[in-house]
Each structure stands twice: as C-alpha cells, then as structure tokens.
Design a protein that fits this description.
The chain has 187 residues and is α+β, with helices and mostly antiparallel strands. The chain contains 6 helices and 4 strands, in the order ββαααβαααβ.
Length: 187
C-alpha cells in the first residue's frame, strides 16, 4: 500500500503509516499487495517487481548512461583534435571507461537513495527501491546495494536471476542490502 499522505510503501496488514500515522483507505489484495487511496481520489496498487520488469528498467538505464558517456567522449575527442596518435586514443579510452564507471555508480546510488527511490529506467516501468519496511533507502544502503551487484553477477549472473524465483522477487544484492524492489501502479 502507499500512504495517501506521505507516499511511503506499506505492506498488507499495516493499520497505519509508521511515518505519519493516518488510517489507511481501502482493502488489501494478496500477499505483499495492497490498495490505498490518496488525496486525489485515485488508488495505487503495490506489489513486488519481477525479473523482467527489472531487466527492462536496467536496459533503459544502461542505454541512458551509455548515451551520456558517448556524447561526452565525442565532445572531448572533437575538442582535443584529431592528431593525438595512439597514446591519445588510449588515454581517451581509459578516461571514458573511468568516467563511465563513476557516472554509473553515482547515478544508481544517488537516484535510488533520492526521494524518487528509483532510477529513470525504474521510474519508466513503475518500480522503485525500498527497505524491508517500505521506506526509502539511505545513500549508504544504496551504495551497498550497488556494490553487492558484483556478487549477484557471480557466477553467470545467478544472483540477478534469483529475482524471478524468490517470494519477494529479491535478487541476491537485495538480500545483501536489505532492500525490496516494488511495483506501483496508479489507477
């Protein structure tokens, strides 16, 4: 459920919002799902985000990050001139890789720990990252979640595939960081 005042994600059976305390409007609808009204009169349904929805969000995010990195690399390449030789190309490649890594790390950690609780890709498919109680996550937790994705990638991305088979649709990095990825559908 979503609190109709503060927007905190609440799960089935919650009698009131722990953050602001109002009575919740509406019934519940299955494990890990609920419906709550908001001030505009529309309702929101909350459930766990599955593997494919998360995969599409990641593809959107990766495309956006790749586009930004490519544009900045091209601007730097044009500004630095064409006659830089092999040494200049190697420097540009390393700088682009380092910038891409830092951009990705900051993008995921800052966006997921913001009030939006989601990257642009996650927001586009209607999902967000919360802690186990439905609250937003702090920057240290978002940072831990980001680095735990390295563990999820071993071996053969098995930790990511776990999101398709666990009860709360958690990947290994979600278990490590104590997070959930929830789907919010506004009706």
């Amino acid at each position: 459920m979503l609190c109709h005042r503060c927007g905190k994600v609440l799960f089935e059976g919650a009698p009131a919002c722990p953050a602001c305390g109002p009575d919740l409007v509406g019934g519940t609808g299955g494990e890990g799902r609920g419906v709550a009204g908001n001030e505009t009169g529309s309702a929101s349904t909350v459930g766990y985000a599955g593997f494919w929805r998360r995969a599409v969000a990641l593809l959107i995010d990766k495309f956006l990050l790749w586009s930004v990195n490519l544009c900045l690399t091209l601007v730097f390449l044009i500004a630095s001139g064409r006659n830089r030789g092999d040494h200049g190309l190697l420097t540009l490649t390393l700088a682009s890789a380092l910038f891409g890594f830092l951009l990705q790390w900051l993008y995921f950690t800052l966006m997921e720990s913001s009030g939006m609780r989601a990257t642009l890709g996650k927001a586009a498919v209607g999902i967000m990252v919360t802690d186990s109680r439905g609250a937003g996550i702090s920057w240290p937790r978002a940072n831990a979640r980001y680095w735990a994705k390295l563990v999820s990638a071993l071996p053969f991305g098995f930790g990511f595939l776990m999101a398709g088979f666990t009860a709360k649709k958690q990947a290994l990095h979600d278990f490590i960081a104590g997070t959930l990825v929830v789907r919010v559908v506004r009706k």
